[in-house]
Amino acid sequence: MSASKDSTAATPTRYLTGITTSGTPHLGNYVGSVRHSVRFSRQEDVQSFYFLADFHALIKVDEPARIQRSTLEIAATWLACGLDPERVTFYRQSDIPEIPELSWFLTCVTGKGMLNRAHAYKAQVDKNAARGEDPDADVNAGLFMYPVLMGADILMFNAHYVPVGRDQVQHIEMARDMAQHFNHLYGEHFTLPEVALDDAVATLPGLDGRKMSKSYDNTIALFAPRAFLQKQIASIVTDSRVPGEPKDTDSSAVFQIYQAFANDDETESLRRAFADGIGWGEAKQLLFERIDQEVGPMRKHYDALLNDPAQIETTLRRGAEKARALSQPFMAELRHAVGLRNLASRDKGAAGKSAKVARPSFKQYREADGLYYFKLLDAGGKQLIQSLGFASPQEAGRAIGSLRQRGAAGLNELAGQIEAVDDETARAAAAALQSLAAETAG
Ligand code: TRP
């Protein structure tokens, strides 16, 4: 067995992020998240998870057709912008039943007081107070629980980093808190996630100069038809300076949006044009052309994808399979950890909190060779089984599943797919598998 597996690629850094399916993607989403994430997902040593947060969408959208449409549009956007579903795990939250299940586990280790302080909920409560209304007017319990569901999204896949905007930082801190609390009660199951803030990523101003956001109704659609894009850009608010008058770049949404698409030279030349008094109409035309240059080719791909929703559906289902190869065995482990167990299995510590003894565990990962591996570790973290490479995470997941279910018997069947070990280790592996299989059964 190679030492390098342990030291280098054994756990590639995992990135995970979700996108709420409540609207049509706009330029702000593209510049602030999609573009950067797609580029990032192509790096060698990272494993990324991107998902459509449709459970989250239900908190604020009660129009089924809009949820469906938005899910389609957002999926098509990511794919059109170059996300490779073979490379990353790209899935729909609601295809992973383990997520709401984990969400309940986390609900039970989360202080209500902490949720009271969550920004999104608190903002609504403060707004109500300011209007002299009942504090909980217009607050559904989904809004209150939002951070817990998000925690489940993140912890389900043991993400190391979560790339999000500043407005989401508090949610990641809360997820850490939940992970810590759960680990403290039930043993080390969760990785503590961290925020990956990228300061190079701009927040884009919208049509009215405020941050581009659905909630301000000031967005420019990413994949609107060309003519509509042009029309929207023409409606960006400017000051009243006439052609010939020098214009201020810092306060100009036109300039800032341009900068988010242009390279340094292009930006410099527009800066000079502003100083030289370029007219707003002309500046907007430059902006339109610059955006269309980048977005145009992707728009074709996007339109094709939208016209073939069945293909996107297939892609997402395949992504869900890949994700569930991880979430299913992990959830089985967590169920056992909290005491939702096969009654016929005699677990030593079943009596009480001392039960949170470490247990044998599977680790699944991808190597630099592109193949999928797993290992079985004993309760102390010592390696018992090292698999050979599998072509897909599903195959690796199935092998793990069969070991979990069939115990030591499964080991013989998989002999050709795991590295040979000495007799003592083989016995320890068989014993560990028997104990796992006992708790999985039924
Ligand atoms: N709350 C995020 C947003 O509105 C979406 C989201 C849901 C998310 N679950 C997540 C982001 C998990 C990162 C990780 O933007």
Q: How does the overall form come out from the CA principal axes?
A: elongated
Number of domains: 3
Low-confidence stretches: 1-9
Q: Quick check: average pLDDT?
A: 90
| Percent in strands | 5-15%
According to CATH, the fold-level topology of the largest domain is Rossmann fold
The top-level CATH class of the largest domain is: Alpha Beta
Q: Assign the CATH architecture of the largest domain.
A: 3-Layer(aba) Sandwich
Polypeptide structure, described:
The protein is mainly alpha-helical. It folds into three domains: 210 residues, HUPs (Rossmann fold); 83 residues, Tyrosyl-Transfer RNA Synthetase (Orthogonal Bundle), CATH 1.10.240.10; 93 residues, YegP-like (Double Stranded RNA Binding Domain), CATH 3.30.160. It contains 17 helices and eight strands. A three-stranded parallel β-sheet has the order 1-2-3. A hairpin with a 5-residue loop joins strand 6 and strand 7. It starts with a helix and ends with a helix. Tryptophan (TRP) binds next to strand 1 and helix 8.
Topology:
Layout: H1 3-9, E1 13-20, H2 27-41, E2 46-53, H3 54-60, H4 64-80, E3 89-92, H5 98-107, H6 112-116, H7 119-130, H8 141-156, E4 161-163, H9 169-186, E5 194-196, H10 226-234, H11 253-261, H12 264-275, H13 280-306, H14 309-338, E6 361-366, E7 372-377, E8 383-386, H15 393-406, H16 408-413, H17 423-440
Parallel strand pairs: 1-2, 2-3, 4-5
Antiparallel strand pairs: 6-7, 7-8
The chain binds tryptophan.
Name its key features.
442 residues, mainly alpha, Rossmann fold, Double Stranded RNA Binding Domain, 3 domains, 3-stranded parallel beta sheet, 17 helices, elongated, binds tryptophan
